[in-house]
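Morning F.,

Quick status update on the modeling queue. The single chain you submitted on Monday has been processed. Sequence for confirmation:
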Amino acid sequence: MLFTAEQIASLLGGEVLGNPKATVQNFAKIEEGAPGCLSFLANLKYAHYLYETASDIVLVNRDFQPDATRPLKPTLIKVDNAYEAVARLLTLYQQTVNKRTGIHPTAVIEDSAQVGEDCYIGPHAYVGQNVQVGKGCQIYANVVIEENAEVGDDCLIYPNVSIYHDCKVGNRVIIHSGAVIGADGFGFAPAADGYEKIPQIGIATIEDDVEIGANTCVDRSTMGSTYVRRGVKLDNLVQVAHNCEVGAHTVMSSQVGLAGSTQIGEWCMCGGQAGFAGHIKIGNRCGIGAQAGVIGNLPDNAQVIGSPSMDPKAFFRSSAVFKRLPEMWRDLNTLKQNTDNGK
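Structure tokens below.
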């Protein structure tokens, strides 16, 4: 479909600089622009591409001022946040071009299951006893939704996702391939002849507008529920253990791991491979650096890095000392030898 600059600006609340009738039907990075494409400029280090790109429309931040001495081909649309604006447009585009319909003949839907209107159920998918699936969902090939589970409206569940029995998934949730919602938590009690499994009789609850990456696991709780609150974004290969709670709008990069009963606050940012000990509480709006090992509670707005984690300034000072340890050890030995020799 063709869209004019005027239409896009109206949708985004933007201001057109240039030809309001300029049209686009696709997207391109600004450095790879092509006729009929829309690009965006959010990072000023790419600003020079604005005068070279072949894209017909470019989104820019409202405070951006083009260089008046250089010729400018594309029509500009000024918006409050170019990066956020293009994300909105890409979401709308994806919804229009990737929407599938119908139920594949190899899908298995139990008689007691309820599937809402305008849903797609792909090849070899299984919807179990008493499952409830909301309207407008896209459930791709080989997805398994076990008995009594609930899936809200407008969810997108990619191939080979498993949603275990009784678990709850909210509205507009995206779950990528291979993710597992509701597997047993890692609970074992030492016994004389090995380890006795502790039954995990709780569930996992995924709230609205969550996105869960490929091969990520959210374990069911021992009792009660593991919670991934609204707006959370989990990257690929993230582990959320039993009885954890991930606060609203928190984001976690790949390979983050939460041990059991960890509570993460709202609007936190967790770098890749960060690890959290069990039974700790992390405040709101905390920043956790990549590969940080968090072993204790953190207050609101804390920023930590390193393992064990510490304040970034202390970590970098300690790193500087660590690099000099061989020389310091040599100097200490020399001093000791001189002392022993009476010098």
